[in-house]
């Protein structure tokens, strides 16, 4: 595969396990998306840092970001709130490890990034010399609400390139910091209760790190959930958006 100025032309011919595009967990809403076009980008070289500008269309908590991979590998992945070029500490960062040529989903909800309509942020990818390639569109770029930047400058020119991505929101999500969580168990039924929430906000309750269910707070800022037929023993109820947890014995 040849690459010129950061572009990788064509898709990599590699043997990978195919997986389908990720489906949205309950409560998430697809906000922005940029389709896969005719272009691949070099996400491998450690001299290249990409920042794709995203313009928010739905207010809430940024919960998940997907990028489309055309060559498996690893790279630094980050989210940074504000327009490009961003140089301050990232609001979210991980090492992205992709072993498929497909859409790859990154859960960013732990960063508690709350955004309003019209806010901007960047999806960042920086190479680690570990083979990663990702897709997008060019001449023109197919996302008309933001620009793609490379190493501090608009890549090639305005409206010329975009990476392929999808962003997901928990609409109206996020936490004020005042929320309180409690949990109880009786006859195999675990109850989780949140108080002092924001009326109408979506709060995602999880039991033992799974079985996550979104619940809207009522007009008094209260939300609750029930889990039935829970096995005896110690369990943990969490609220995903707020980083809250409560232990309970059954």
Descriptive overview:
The protein has 250 residues and is mainly beta. Helices cover 0% and strands 53% of the residues. The protein contains no helices and 23 strands. It has strands at 3-4, 7-8, 28-34, 39-42, 49-55, 60-71, 73-81, 92-98, 103-107, 114-115, 120-130, 133-138, 148-150, 153-154, 161-163, 165-171, 180-186, 189-195, 202-207, 210-216, 223-227, 234-239, 244-249. Strands 1, 2, 3, 4, 6, 9, 10, 12, 15 and 16 form a ten-stranded antiparallel beta sheet that branches. It has a six-stranded antiparallel beta sheet with strand order 8-7-11-5-13-14, with no helix packed on it. The protein has a four-stranded antiparallel beta sheet with strand order 20-19-22-23, with no helix packed on it. The protein is elongated, with a radius of gyration of 20 Å. The model is unreliable at 1-5 and 7-23 (pLDDT under 50).
């Amino acid at each position: 595969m040849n690459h010129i100025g950061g572009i990788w032309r064509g898709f990599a011919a590699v043997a990978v396990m195919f997986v389908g595009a990720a489906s949205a967990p309950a409560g998430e809403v697809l906000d922005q998306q940029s389709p896969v076009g005719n272009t691949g980008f070099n996400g491998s070289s450690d001299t290249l840092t990409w920042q794709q500008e995203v313009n928010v269309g739905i207010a809430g908590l940024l919960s998940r970001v997907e990028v489309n991979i055309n060559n498996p590998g690893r790279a630094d992945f980050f989210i940074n709130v504000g327009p490009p070029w961003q140089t301050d500490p990232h609001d979210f960062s991980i090492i992205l490890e992709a072993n498929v040529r497909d859409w790859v989903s990154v859960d960013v909800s732990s960063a508690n990034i709350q955004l309003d309509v019209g806010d901007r942020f960047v999806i960042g990818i920086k190479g680690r010399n570990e083979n990663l390639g990702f897709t997008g569109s060019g001449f023109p770029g197919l996302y008309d609400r933001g620009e793609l930047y490379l190493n501090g400058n608009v890549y090639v020119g305005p409206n010329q390139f975009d990476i392929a991505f999808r962003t997901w929101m928990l609409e109206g999500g996020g936490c004020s910091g005042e929320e309180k969580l409690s949990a109880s168990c009786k006859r195999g039924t675990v109850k989780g209760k949140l108080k002092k929430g924001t009326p109408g906000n979506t709060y995602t309750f999880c039991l033992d790190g799974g079985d996550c269910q979104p619940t809207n707070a009522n007009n008094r800022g209260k939300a609750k959930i029930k889990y039935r037929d829970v096995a005896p023993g110690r369990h943990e109820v969490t609220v995903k958006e707020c980083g809250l947890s409560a232990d309970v014995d059954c």
